[in-house]
Amino acid sequence: MKRPLWAVVAPATALFAALVTQGCGADGRPVAEPGAAPLELTIPAGSSVSRVGQLLEQKHVIRSAAYFKKIATGTILPGVYAFSPADTPEAIYLKLHKGEVAAVKVTIPEGFTVKKIAARLKERGFLTDETKFLALADGLEGQLFPDTYAFPKNTTAKEIVAQMHAQFEKQTKALKLTPEALIVASLIEREAETDDDRPKIAGVIYNRLEKNMRLQIDATVQYILPEHKARLLFADLKTPSPYNTYLHAGLPPGPICSPGLPSIRAALNPEKSDYLFYVQGEGKGHVFARTFEEHRANIARIRKGGHS
Prior knowledge:
Shape: elongated
Radius of gyration: 31 Å
Low-confidence stretches: 5-23
Order of helices and strands: HEHHEHEHHEHHHHHEEH
Largest sheet: 2 strands, antiparallel
Strand content: 5-15%
Protein name: Endolytic murein transglycosylase
Signal peptide: 1-26
Site (Important for catalytic activity): 191
GO molecular function, one term: lytic endotransglycosylase activity
Number of domains: 3
InterPro entries: MLTG-like
């Protein structure tokens, strides 16, 4: 009995379709199972889809460069990427198309100077030379906001400075922060060890300024020294600089670090008191005094081992 043509063609067509589907399915599967370690790969600027597919296949991120070329119908952005072999080629292409480059987290603590920020960025691999960053950040001491950032690995020094300054502007926009208050906030940041002390120290600073007393803040001397000292010597207090508040009355010419929001808020909302002096206690925190005699007594008591 002669079978109809469709009865012969249909099974053959179905078989062919199954083979094609199976082939595409194999090429479209991830190279590895979930949990595979990510692989870092640099996609150079100007790379064609074919070249990117070859790189991905050579590094065993995808199974087939030809399959990748079929699905990569849009632009591919250059950069340093972190690919997981457990991702599908489609997911990998979307990452390249959106420019989701690998990011490295870096924490800039409160109280860091511009120089310390540059050193931290160099340590984390963002800078090969600190000179350019320091030049770009010139005049921005105190205005590079301390925070945890996630910068793409190919981020430039200019982009980092811009992002940190933009974060400062964003965080302080509603606070009506004056240049003088920012300087005070930086002093508080370097002096205070507890949040409770911040508004108290702010009050002392403003009280001394009102009475035209020199601030005599150790942190301003540390700022001008080449290296930080665990303990300042009497000779250090005579270091010539407009920032040295042992030698000059009033505020220093600019901030001495990047303060966090608690110190900024304390500078804007100082605690009202008649305190004029403070000294670090045995633990964290400071002991405050209204007169120099009371201050000297506090120092003597702390040296003896108690400040209650």
